[in-house]
Amino acid sequence: MTDDDVELEARLAEQESFDPPASFVDQANVTDEAIYDEFSENWPECWTRAADLLSWDSEYSTVLDDSDEPFYEWFADGDLNAAYNCVDRHVEDGNKNRVAIKWEGEHGNTRTYTYQDLYREVNEFAATLQELGVKENDVVTMYMPMIPELPIAMLACARIGAPHSVVFAGFSADALATRMNSADSEYLITADGYYRRGDALDHFQKAQEGLDNVEHDVAASVVVDRLGDDGFGHELSETQYDWDSLMDAHRGDRVAPVERNAEDMLFLMYTSGTTGEPKGVKHTTGGYLAYTAWTAQSVLDLEPGDTYWCSADIGWITGHSYIVYGPLALGTTTVMYEGTPDYPERDRLWDIIEKYAVDVFYTAPTAIRAFMKWGTEYPDSHDLSSLRLLGTVGEPINPRAWKWYYTHIGHESCPIVDTWWQTETGGMMVTTLPGIGTMKPGSAGPPSPGIDATIVDTAGEDVDAGRAGYLTVNKPWPGMLRTLYQNDERFIDEYWEEYSDPDTDEWVYFPEDGAKIDDDGYMTILGRVDDVLNVSGHRLGTMEIESAIVGVNGVAEAAVVGGDHDLKGEAVYAYVITEDGYAEDEDLRESIIKGVEDGIGPIARPEQVIFTEELPKTRSGKIMRRLLEEIANGEELGDTTTLRNPEIVDEIEAKVSGD
Ligand code: PRX
Q1: Coiled-coil intervals in this record (predicted)?
Q2: What total of structural domains would you count in the chain?
Q3: Which of 171, 288, 420 has most ligand 1 atoms within 8 Å of CB, for mutation?
């Protein structure tokens, strides 16, 4: 580091708040603080402002129908089509030649889709889906890498009113099968493979293994040929079709967008919860699209002329809302990248930002921590002056990482939005608005306009500033999940039971996050308070990992907790009891790791597998996870007096610390 750098770091280390630069405010989409009052005074009618960003086939007459709480409906009697809103209308508005998607493959090969190109491909794939037998309301599963065919397939589904269920390509074959079974999905769109750090990966093999475990008949699968000559030569079966051949047969076909009711399902997205079964979060057409378009405009400050890049994977909600639906609804150019940030070099992301002159960049704290570790020479070797705004999502960002991002990527001239939200919320909920709010590193900011969020204690009373409590949302919002797929009961149990009072008809949404608030109403998110881990910004259930581990031969019992990790935020610690007759050896450790990779995917791979004779349990037989977490973190241990077997704690601790 130069002397200047040292001086800069010292100055920034002291600074606790930052105002958005005047150059940004001058051009921002939202700059008047009165928006907060306007939304709260006119709630719920304020949400027409979001709905007005869309084109409706028939106008809605009510904004919010709350006659059957908590099954809220938004813009309920309006009709619209999401693909029409994300594609056709931009073509009709004279913007057919504007770039919709800029795709960068891992090897540097690129593809550019104008809105006209996207219109053509979405229509042709919609015609293809119809030929395969897909009808309105059939769930179509996508298990695809980051290639343009993924958003094309999503939008083609939206065009014909078939909800999609995208399964992250890094998830295992088992995870694919579980999700297809749960959604009774008879159609799969997948790919032969993709590139990771220079290697061609065989994705079709995994998809095939998943299909083998689907309990019902799968009517058709479509396979994109991503690898060409690098492919693995798999034969397609009678119900498996090559994407290009199907598309060739439908060149020039047009399919009229289906009028969908605002409350019709747009997609399902499976996410982790406290039980072993992933939850099918249901999002609808009108509220979700209005909410993602509105937050993309007000929080990400997107405008049609922008080149915008969200480095998430479309397999997660961030990619759905802020690579595909929000930006395309606004007519922005959205960048998609297939590979990893460190291939071929650690400057790959900065190279892409420079190459496409990206205006707004949205990423995750786990990535920022890796960039910090790699050093400033990588961003410093690129011209990042096109950037106007930076964003983060997925996990808490510590002030040091925030300041690094602000200085070395934003060069002190881009505001940062630290956006708290979830798969279930559909879009951003707690964040500063970049043209208005003072930023405080480490704190996401106030609830967005129209979002009534508070931080309460276990009794539901507001906590004082500075005290830790639980984040709750007291009023519905358009982007919210409507239910868990075919499981209304679990929907109520998981999100509403804790703080609602059905007697007084007060319904409160509980996201299962701990948080605190300061005197200015800024919220700092402290992390999940349920058994959900956040590993590199990826949401994983401890129960899912445990059930993968106990499925391994030789394992009797397992407890999984999260331990602090410099880069990943949290890492998976697995405490395992072996069955009698099985050695606690390297072979078993490897089988356990493989069991987790096969059951969920490599992202859930345990950082450490700790064999133990027993797990610390209370007298009533409950595993004391808190102690296991403290051990993983090398923290001083709390009270062990309620344990049935306190002696085991020292033994486990010695194993983890290596003493
Ligand atoms: O714990 C919160 C954390 O991520 C969880 C939601 O995960 P998922 O549904 O996978 O969606 C991630 C992308 C929206 C939340 O319950 N989280 C998300 N954003 C933040 C965050 N924690 C702290 N700060 C954030 N900005």
Answers
A1: none
A2: 4
A3: 420
Q: Tell me: the pLDDT tens digits for 66-77?
A: 999 999 999 999
Residue 368: pLDDT above 80?
yes
Instruction: Please indicate whether residue 479, judged by its CB atom, sits closer than 6 Å to ligand 1.
Output: no
Instruction: Give the pLDDT band of residue 1 (cuts 50, 70, 90).
Output: low
82 and 13 in a common domain: no
Check residue 500 and give its pLDDT: 95
Question: Which of 171, 522, 539, 568 is the best mutation target for the ligand 1 pocket, counting ligand atoms within 8 Å of the beta carbon and taking the most?
Answer: 539
| Residue range of the domain that includes 398 | 8-42+362-443
Phi, psi (deg, nearest 5) at residue 160: -100, 5
User: What letter does residue 88 receive in the DSSP assignment?
Assistant: I
Same domain, 602 and 572: yes
CA pair distance 591, 586, nearest whole angstrom: 9
Question: In ligand 1, which atom is closest to the CA atom of 392?
Answer: 26
Cα(416) to ligand 1 centroid in Å equals: 16
**In angstroms, what is the span from residue 488 Cα to ligand 1's centroid?**
23
Regarding the beta carbon of 394 and ligand 1, being less than 6 Å apart is answered: yes
Provide the pLDDT for residue 10: 81
Report the nearest-CA residue for atom 8 of ligand 1: 422
Q: Atom 21 of ligand 1 has which residue's CA nearest to it?
A: 395
> How many Å is the maximal CA-CA distance in the chain?
74
User: Does residue 615 contact residue 629 with C-beta atoms inside 8 Å?
Assistant: no
Q: Which residues contact 620 (CB under 8 A, 6 or more apart)?
A: none
Distance between Cα 358 and ligand 1 center (Å): 24
Distance (Å, rounded) from C-alpha 153 to C-alpha 431? 31
Confidence of residue 276 (pLDDT cuts 50, 70, 90): confident
Which of 505, 530, 555 is the last residue in one of the domains?
530
Per the CB < 8 A criterion, the answer to whether 114 and 97 are in contact is yes
What's the pTM value of the predicted model, to 2 decimals? 0.96
Q: Ligand 1: which atom is nearest the Cα of residue 397?
A: 24
